[in-house]
From TrEMBL:
Taxonomy, superkingdom: Bacteria
Alphabetical keyword list: Membrane, Transmembrane, Transmembrane helix
Keyword Mitochondrion in record: no
Annotated protein name in UniProt: Glycosyltransferase RgtA/B/C/D-like domain-containing protein
Organism name: Limnobacter parvus
Transmembrane segments: 103-121, 193-221, 241-258, 291-313, 325-342, 348-366, 378-402, 422-442, 454-474
Keyword field contains Zinc-finger: no
Length: 594
């Protein structure tokens, strides 16, 4: 396809930043932390807000050490939480304020992806054909391709939900994107490239450990050592990168070792990192079932950038030795390698693929035939319009009871929920739907041949569906996933029971990290973690969690061993979960002081 200056339209900077904010802001507010991953990440950050900065070297949820993740995302969210407390914001806004850290990481990742694509698209080997001398300038063409890469990034289905959660992989994605940008900068700015690669390594490491950035770095180094223009000065760049990474790592490590339980946390965290590598765990291996899971997840998680990136690789198959294709391809291969050496069922392990595939997908847009672009457009129109109609139909049925059959199905999913029509949310949903119709009309009637046009409808459709879900459905979703009502019931039960010693703390047994995190946020009681029944003597109350699918096995065993010391005073569960039950016990005898 011949690209001319007339159809090489750039996206407005305001529009591009507006799309990023329109993508990330909905879903961050007016809801409670959702179990399991969002709640666990919130609990990690929430605990930091209650501690002095001198105790931030390791992470915990309450008084339990928490090692399943990194520290960087929790540090930023904890800072935002402390700021919210200092500003005297309402308590129920605390989790909303802490989720604002996702905005920073997403903007940082988008900035790195845009600049990576821009620098690659300026290279001679990627310039469009110019048989008539009407091609755009190198800068204009590179900007248009870079704009398309951000649309590819935002239009990826797998990024949508987890980018709105307090999960460490969002920060890790930013670090890996900066590593990729550093590798590209080594082509023309080798001095600054080393510092940038080191900064990316530090961000990715403190965000989520070793498992993802290490294969990524190794593949980038392998790509560099097999090409003369990249191999020059490689040792100096890596020395700078190691310096940037080693300084904060050394400071943090010595700080960690000075903390109480610091060595225990370090050993447990490293053990968790090792367990993520299947090849280092003799009890695990990558089998046929894992391969099936990987292929299924790749199909939807990386839509549509995976097939578009494959098209680019095929279209530039004779130029794979060029750095402009070699570097993002090396990053993509590193992401695939991660899937084979870690747990493929964990969606977080697919995040390292987002940055290199978004770059590759955008590079190949200028080579797509008009028929293929039309196919992408019409697929987006039909699929996202159909999905939006279903969202509206489901909301109408759940709110007004018509159609009755659909309404009854939603009642089964969230029994006890009383629908409420909120004017602002309804107005935003109507505006989003109207904007979608206008976008379709513009795209089909304008005849625009801008490079980014194949991604406009896909990205717009993703934003539309998320806006509809986060306006029309957010109250019901929050009702189904939140522990707020349950926490309030526990608070009332503890406050209304005559205590035996005046110690109102609640020991917990068999509570997961997500349950513990949300309950300690939504209750006005003091939780103290005790792992064994005999150690629970410090508190007057004990909260036990069990599952009816196992016949309440844990509850039965507990009462058989401790029925003389504990009396069941309250039982509760969330209406949306028919199997998960909580049991509150009060001490029956005198507490032995230690």
């Amino acid at each position: 396809m011949v690209i001319t200056a007339a159809n090489n339209t750039r996206l407005s900077r305001r529009l591009l930043w507006g799309l990023i904010l329109l993508y990330i802001l909905p879903g961050l507010f007016a809801r409670s932390p959702w179990k399991p991953d969002d709640a666990a990440g919130f609990g990690q950050s929430f605990t930091l807000t209650q501690l002095p900065f001198s105790e931030w070297a390791l992470s915990s949820i309450g008084d339990r050490l928490y090692v399943e993740g990194g520290l960087l995302s929790a540090w930023l969210s904890g800072l935002l939480g402390k700021l919210a407390v200092a500003l005297n914001l309402p308590y129920n806004w605390l989790d909303d304020a802490m989720r604002m850290g996702n905005v920073f990481w997403m903007i940082l990742a988008g900035w790195a992806i845009w600049n990576t694509t821009y620098r690659l698209a300026k290279r001679v080997e990627l310039q469009p054909e110019d048989p008539l001398g009407t091609a755009p300038t190198r800068v204009d063409y590179a900007r248009a391709v870079a704009d398309a890469s951000v649309l590819c990034f935002l239009g990826t289905l797998g990024l949508l939900v987890r980018s709105h959660m307090q999960v460490p992989e969002v920060a890790e994605l930013a670090g890996i994107s900066i590593m990729l940008l550093g590798a590209v900068r080594s082509l023309d700015r080798p001095i600054g490239a080393g510092w940038m690669i080191g900064a990316g390594i530090a961000i990715a490491f403190f965000a989520r450990g070793w498992a993802h950035w290490l294969p990524f770095l190794l593949m980038l180094l392998l790509s560099s050592t097999t090409h003369s223009s990249l191999r020059f000065g490689l040792l100096r760049r890596m020395t700078r990168a190691a310096t940037v990474f080693a300084i904060p790592f050394a400071i943090w490590f010595f700080w960690l070792m000075s903390q109480k339980n610091g060595e225990i946390w370090w050993n447990a965290w490293n053990e968790w990192n090792v367990r993520r590598f299947l090849i280092l765990d003799p009890t695990k291996s990558f089998g046929f079932e894992d391969l099936v899971i990987t292929l299924k997840t790749l199909t939807w998680f990386l839509w549509p950038i995976l097939p578009m990136a494959c098209w680019t690789i095929w279209r530039y198959r004779n130029a794979l030795s060029e750095p402009s294709i070699r570097i993002p391809l090396a990053g993509a291969l590193a992401g695939v390698l991660v899937l084979f050496i870690t747990n493929p069922a964990d969606e977080a392990n697919y995040f390292p693929l987002l940055a290199p595939l978004s770059v590759l997908a955008a590079i190949g847009l200028s080579t797509m035939k008009r028929g293929l672009i039309s196919l992408i457009d019409w697929f987006a129109v039909l699929w996202f319009t159909f999905a939006a109609v279903l969202v509206w139909l489901g909301w109408t049925a759940a709110t007004f009871g018509f159609p009755a059959k659909i309404a009854s199905n939603f009642e089964k999913l969230s029994p006890g929920y009383v629908p409420d029509v909120i004017g602002l949310e309804l107005a935003l949903a109507l505006m989003a739907s109207f904007a979608w119709v206008k976008l379709i009309i513009w795209r089909t009637a304008s005849g625009s041949r801008a490079l980014w046009r194949p991604m406009v409808l896909t990205t717009g459709g993703v934003i539309l569906l998320w806006l509809l879900m986060m306006t029309l459905w957010i109250p019901r979703i929050d009702y189904a996933k939140s522990f707020k009502a349950l926490g309030e019931s526990i608070t009332v039960a503890v406050a209304g029971h005559p205590q035996t010693t005046g110690k109102g703390c609640v020991a917990d047994y068999n509570l997961g990290y997500a349950q513990r995190a949300t309950l300690q946020y939504h209750t006005s009681v003091d939780f103290t973690r005790k792992g064994q029944f005999k150690e629970a003597a410090e508190c007057d109350f004990l909260l036990l969690q069990d599952d009816t699918r196992q016949g309440l096995k844990i509850k039965v065993e507990f009462e058989a061993k401790a029925s003389e010391r504990w009396e069941l005073v309250w039982t509760g569960n969330r209406n949306s979960d028919r199997h998960e039950f909580f049991f509150l016990y009060a001490r029956t005898g005198e507490v032995q002081e230690k």
